[in-house]
From TrEMBL:
Domain named Mce/MlaD: residues: 35-100
Record-given protein name: Mce/MlaD domain-containing protein
UniProt key word Manganese: no
Keywords, sorted A to Z: Membrane, Transmembrane, Transmembrane helix
Annotated TM spans: 7-25
Entry coiled-coil feature ranges: none
């Protein structure tokens, strides 16, 4: 008997542990006093038992039971357990919100201005909030449906464009252009790194030389220089006038044709004399060891 009692007690303990463990995993605290309320909806949007109940973003309860109201067709009654310290003012309502992942949660929209409160076991008014998913289904899906034919046309045009051999040639040309631009960029980098600094140095040196030349020009007496130039030009003009007149030797030489002809004849005679001297030197030079004269 003792062994059977022990086995029975162990089985009962296992069942209790399993019961409390399952409720704990569901979020039900068996040792915390709670108040029970009912909320009536026309559509629960897939709300499940053990779903949390929030108030101002804080979890204050849990969905414990969902039943269809057969006495009032089209309505569903949801039983919720609330913290015993949670008091719900009259005029408050419950709202179902569908989240992005499709889960449904219940929010208590409390009437903080109310002075009277619901008693445990009372029924609250519930409403469904379509949320983001509902709004997307209502507004976005019709637009997507309208856009589908246009998307098909765009995809067809895109496939035609991708199948065009000209696109491959264009991409090949773009690749070659990119390679050329890379080469140009490297050359420009080399130019900017080597040639430009050298050119800048040369320009700086030229600028310094120009500064020196400018300083030297600044010290030049331009009035005296121009006076000397005028005097030189005047002398050149006088020399030119003298050369144009016949009252001087250079003028006669340049302007008298007779003098020119005489000089030319003299030059011709001198040339003839030199030629004859070269051909018959004995006519002009007499030399003998014994004093004999050649005629």
């Amino acid at each position: 008997m003792k062994k059977e009692v022990k086995i029975g007690l162990a089985g009962i303990a296992s069942l209790l542990i399993l019961f409390f463990g399952i409720n704990y995993l569901k979020g039900v605290n068996m040792f915390k006093p709670e108040s029970y309320y009912y909320v009536e909806f026309t559509n629960i949007n897939g709300l499940a038992t053990s779903s949390p109940v929030f108030a101002n973003g804080l979890k204050v309860g849990l969905v414990r039971d969902i039943q269809y109201n057969y006495q009032k067709p089209g309505h569903v009654v949801v039983g919720i357990e609330m913290d015993q310290a949670m008091r719900i003012p009259k005029g408050s309502r419950a709202e179902l919100v569908t989240e992005m992942l499709g889960t449904v949660k219940m929010n208590m929209l409390l009437n903080h201005e109310g002075q009277e409160y619901y008693n445990p076991g009372d029924t609250l008014v519930g409403e469904a909030n379509e949320g983001i998913m509902g709004a997307a289904e209502k507004d976005l899906l019709p637009k997507l449906t309208q856009m589908m034919p246009k998307m098909d046309s765009i995809l067809s045009s895109l496939n035609t464009l991708l199948a065009d051999p000209a696109l491959a040639k264009t991409l090949h040309n773009a690749e070659q252009l990119t390679a050329s631009l890379n080469a140009t960029s490297r050359q420009l980098h080399t130019l900017m790194s080597n040639d430009i600094p050298q050119l800048t140095g040369n320009v700086t040196a030229i600028t310094e030389d120009l500064k020196v030349i400018s300083g030297n020009l600044k010290n030049v007496n331009y009035a005296a220089t121009f006076t000397k130039i005028d005097s030189t030009l005047q002398n050149v003009r006088l020399l030119t006038d003298k050369l144009n007149r016949k009252d001087n030797s250079l003028g006669l030489l340049l302007n008298d044709p007779e003098l020119y002809n005489n000089l030319n004849a003299t030059s011709a005679n001198a040339a003839s004399l030199l030629k004859d001297l070269q051909e018959h030197p004995k006519r002009y030079v007499h030399f003998s060891l014994f004093g004999k004269k050649d005629k």
